[in-house]
């Protein structure tokens, strides 16, 4: 299987599993928490049919990538992405991130710049800063029970999480099947227990500086019915931070945080 080594933990390498298919200008797709590169399967089919080279990968601790005990922060994620782009020698890349993957896009561009990246897309992205402050009134208080809930009952947590992630009271049976929801649950509970808990702290990362450095075209897509990451708390502020000449922000009616994936929409 294709792996890129991005580090070392004791006696074992830390490897990122990736898929690399097609030809033409490359698109690199970065999944959200706690999914894997398979989350992009519908977009991958459409992009391959359009003549693009498509690269997906599993973030460390998730899917078929290594499960180290450390490194679950955006600096490490972005460094891993840079290792992947360098190893595959990808240039003129279109970079797309969904949910937590959008934070990875921001940190990568803020740290490594635009030498390899042509433009980017952010779909249902995390907030520029999650915690509540006078400047971020849509944020949440510092105290959070998410980590405790994951530690106490990971499987039960993801059962409840999926209800809002997919807006199941509205979409189940029409936009998404019970089997697809089960598949995503299987991916979540099959991930590294350390990674799923450690990833929660990443949600508190401050991405303001990274976003303000972006100087390439960025398409921001966000559903108006997103319950996991409400649109008003996330995308308008992100659009303000990215240089106006670089960004386009589109509201999409009645889509949940995962509808771009479950309905086959393309980033």
UniProtKB/TrEMBL annotation:
Recorded superkingdom: Bacteria
Organism per entry: Streptomyces sp. 900105755
InterPro entries per UniProt: AB_hydrolase, AB_hydrolase_1, AB_hydrolase_fold
Domain AB hydrolase-1: 26-234
Keyword Iron: no
Keywords, sorted A to Z: Hydrolase
Hydrolase listed as a keyword: yes
GO molecular function: hydrolase activity
Descriptive protein name: Alpha/beta hydrolase
Pfam families: Abhydrolase_1
């Amino acid at each position: 299987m294709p792996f890129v080594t991005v580090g070392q933990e004791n006696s074992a390498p830390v490897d990122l599993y990736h898929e690399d298919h097609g030809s033409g200008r490359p698109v690199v797709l970065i999944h959200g928490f706690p999914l894997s590169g398979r989350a992009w399967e519908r977009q991958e089919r459409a992009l391959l049919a359009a003549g693009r080279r498509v690269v997906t990968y599993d973030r460390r601790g998730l899917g078929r990538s290594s499960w180290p005990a450390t490194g679950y922060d955006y600096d490490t994620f972005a460094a891993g992405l840079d290792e992947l782009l360098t190893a595959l020698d990808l240039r003129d890349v279109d970079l797309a991130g969904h949910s937590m993957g959008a934070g990875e896009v921001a940190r990568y561009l803020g740290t490594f710049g635009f030498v390899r990246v042509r433009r980017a897309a952010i779909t249902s992205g995390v907030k520029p800063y999650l915690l509540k402050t006078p400047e971020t009134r849509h944020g949440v208080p510092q105290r959070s029970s998410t980590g405790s809930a994951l530690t106490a009952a990971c499987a039960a947590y993801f059962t409840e999480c999926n209800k809002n992630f997919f807006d199941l009271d509205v979409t189940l049976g029409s936009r998404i099947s019970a089997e697809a929801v089960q598949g995503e649950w299987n991916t979540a509970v099959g991930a590294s227990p350390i990674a799923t808990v450690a990833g929660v702290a990443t949600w508190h990362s401050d991405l303001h500086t990274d976003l303000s450095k972006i100087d390439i075209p960025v398409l921001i897509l966000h559903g108006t019915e997103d319950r996991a990451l409400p649109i008003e708390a996330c995308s308008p502020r992100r659009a303000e931070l990215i240089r106006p000449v670089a960004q386009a922000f589109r509201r999409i009616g009645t889509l949940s945080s995962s509808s771009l994936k479950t309905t086959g929409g393309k980033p």
